[in-house]
Amino acid sequence: MKRFITTLQNIFSIEELRTRILNTLLFVTVFRFGSQIVLPGVDPSKLNLTPQGLLGLLDTFLGGAYSKASIFALGIMPYISASIAIQLLTLALPYFQKMQKEGESGRKRLNQITRVLTIFVTAAQAITYLTTTIPNEAVMISPATFRIVSVFILTAGTIFCMWLGERITDKGIGNGISMLIMIGIVSRFPGAVYGEALSRGSGGALLFVLEIVALFFVVMGAVVLTQAVRRIPIQYAKQVVGNKVVGGQRQYLPLKLNAAGVMPIIFAQALMFVPSLVASLFAEKSDFAGSVQTVFADYTSWQYNVLFAVLIIVFTFFYTAISVNPNQIADDMRRSGGFIPGVKPGFMTSEYIGQVLDRITLPGALMLAIVAILPAIASLLGMTRNFSQFFGGTSLLIMVGVVLDTLQQVESYLLMRRYEGLMQSGRVTGRTESITA
C-alpha cells in the first residue's frame, strides 16, 4: 500500500502528466453526460429496448447509449467502421497505398477522408436506427420531423465523440477512441456486479466470491494473450559511417501471439446473425429451418459457439495475413543491414518469418476463440447475462488492451523523470495500436 501511495504521489507531482490525467477525466465525464441525454421527442419510459446479437455488443461498447436513444446512440462506432474501411482500401487500392506512404501529409489526407466517410456512414446508420429500433409509441412528435432532426443530432453526436477522442489522444492520456469504448464498457460493470450479487442472495455469497476470483484469473489470461510475443533475434552488420563504426547490435523482432487483436471477434460476431436470418426465410416451410433459427438465436447453444469459434480462427489467420507482411519485414531488414542468424537475407528470411508467424497464429487463434466463448460458458453456469459478458469476448480484450496502453504511457512519464515504474518487477508493455488498427 505504501508503494502504491508513493506511485500516486509521483504521478501527480509531474505537472504535464497531472494535466493530461485531469483532461482525460474531464473529456470522459462529458462523454458519459452526453450518453444520458435522450433524443428530443422521445419518451424514455416507452423505449424498453433490449438489443441482441451484434446490436447488443454495440450497446455494450456505448455504455447503454444505444438502448437509451441517447444523442450519442451511435457513439464512435461509425468512425471505427469508416477507419476499418479505409484500412482495407489501403491494402487493396494503389491510390490509397501511395497516400499511406507519403508520410505525414498522406496520413492527414487519409484522416480527412475517414472523417468525411464517417459523416455518410453515421447518416446511413442513423436512418436505420430511427426507423427500425425506436418504437413509434415512444415518439411524441411528428415522426417525419423527429427523424429529420434526429439524423442531424445523431450525426453531430458522433462527430463530437470523434472530436473528444482526438482531444484525449492529444491533450489526455491513452488512445482517445479506444478510451471512449472502454469507458462505455466499464460503465456497465458496477451494475453487472450488483445484479449478480442480488441474484445469488445471502446464501450464495461464497459462490459469488468464487465468480470474482474466476473473473480475476480470466483477466490475467487475457493479459497474457494480449502481451505474449515470439521474439526473433536480428543481428545488424557493422558499417563504417565517416570515421565511426556503427551497427553490430543484436535486437529482436517481436511477433505477437495475437497479432489480429479483437478484429476477428468483431468480424465473426457480425456474421453470426446470418444463419438465423437465412433460416427465418424458410422457417414456415421447413421444420429444420425453424430449428436452425432457434439454435442460432441462442448464443449459449453449442452449435452457435462452434461456428463462432471456427469463424474467429479463420478471421484471425486472415487478418494476421493482411496486417503482417513477412516480405516487407524481410526487405526492411535487408535495407537496414539486419539479418536473422542462420537464415539468408531476402526470400529465405521472408519464408522463415512466415513459418514462425503461422506456428504462433494457430495457438493464438485457439486462445482467442476460447476467450470469445467464455461468456456463453459463464451464462450456462448460472451467471446473469450482463455479468457473464465480462468473462471474455471483445469487451474484455478491449479493456485489457486499453488499460495496458494507458499504463505504458504513464510509466514512460515516470521513467523520463527518473522515478521508479509502476511495477517493481519490470516495465509495463502495452499496445501501441488503437482499436481501429
From TrEMBL:
The keyword Transport applies. Its main location: membrane. GO terms for biological process: intracellular protein transmembrane transport; protein targeting; protein transport by the Sec complex. It holds the Pfam family SecY. Gene3D superfamilies: SecY subunit domain. GO terms for cellular component: plasma membrane. The keyword Ion transport does not apply. It is found in: Cell membrane; Membrane. The chain crosses the membrane at residues 21-39, 71-93, 113-132, 144-165, 172-193, 205-225, 259-282, 302-324, 360-381, 387-407. Keywords: Cell membrane, Membrane, Protein transport, Translocation, Transmembrane, Transmembrane helix, Transport. It is a multi-pass membrane protein. It comes from the Bacteria. InterPro entries: SecY, SecY/SEC61-alpha, SecY_CS, SecY_dom_sf. Belongs to the SecY/SEC61-alpha family. PANTHER family: SECY/SEC61-ALPHA FAMILY MEMBER. The central subunit of the protein translocation channel SecYEG. Consists of two halves formed by TMs 1-5 and 6-10. These two domains form a lateral gate at the front which open onto the bilayer between TMs 2 and 7, and are clamped together by SecE at the back. The channel is closed by both a pore ring composed of hydrophobic SecY resides and a short helix (helix 2A) on the extracellular side of the membrane which forms a plug. The plug probably moves laterally to allow the channel to open. The ring and the pore may move independently. Component of the Sec protein translocase complex. Heterotrimer consisting of SecY, SecE and SecG subunits. The heterotrimers can form oligomers, although 1 heterotrimer is thought to be able to translocate proteins. Interacts with the ribosome. Interacts with SecDF, and other proteins may be involved. Interacts with SecA. This is Protein translocase subunit SecY. It comes from Larkinella knui.
